[in-house]
Amino acid sequence: MAVESAQAAGADRISVLRLRVGTLSGAVPEALEFAWDVVRVGTAAATARLEIESVPAACWCATCAAEFECADFFYECPRCHNVSGDLRRGRELDIASVELN
Amino acid sequence: MCQECGCNSGAKVGNHPHDHSHEHHKDDHGPASVPLTLDVNRSLLEKNDGLAARNRDLFHAKKLLVVNVVSSPGSGKTTFIRETAVQLAGKLRIGVIVGDLATDNDAARLRTAGIPVVQITTGTMCHLEANMIAKAAAQLDLDQLDVLVIENVGNLVCPADFDLGEDLRVVLLSTTEGEDKPLKYPPMFHSAHVAVINKCDLATAAGFNRDLALANLKRISHHAQIFEVSAKTGDGMKAWLDYLEEQRTRS
Question: CATH for B46-250?
Fold first, then answer.
């Protein structure tokens, strides 16, 4: 996907690939880094560096009318202890950007 | 911003004849070696998600209720699905897509009960993806079905991330597995619409702590409907079957 985007932009080499990974995405940064060494071989990103931006998961508490950060899947508001079903961030597994040169 | 000279995200990279004015952003031009950042902002799962959306459109057009059944290996998915189909015979027509790494044993078990079934053998893959479902569904006469059940590969990790185009995700937890499965595999349990505790007939022998299991399930699958059944003896199945019929009426 990154290589397609780079080629569509007329570039033939990617120097940095930036991923945005939510803490509740199910993807483990260490595993992505390990896989990166394998998948980049022979592509336009062969020498590229992988940068992973971690996105802390956040829920919306309707009772408190405020966001709170959730470290796990319990989604319990630390203020009122109600359980929220409204996850606003944290499921991301995106290619944010690539750097070309 | 300029779309031709490569000074902005998404722009073409490389030289082009500079026969036009660049007054509006000349400060942006650095030496040729300065890297250019291209915003991509695309999900790595977008291909699967797009195919799942296409499956969902097809299934809705066929007025099918689609159920994705997930659990660890050996929780009793096949027996649960077989009993669901057998007990709803005459009310709802159920077809099944079964995923396993190898063998068509599960498909054979369902076929002997007279259920239309397609087996997907995934080889080394630990989950089903939306394109596999599209291909398998093409082998079933969807016009002759009311409910399509997908028996996912026995695995509580990877299937959580792959939308197949289902309406309902049903996770099974059997009494022989221990009460803490929801705490150990939260993404899967969290993503389920329905959680079924199976093999309740073995609860006493397995020393299963029902209250603890329910508390764990409610903590992780806080929005999910919970059923307690033994697919083998039929205990508790009626509540699940009524729920499924109701969901089918709604879909």
Answer: 3.40.50.300
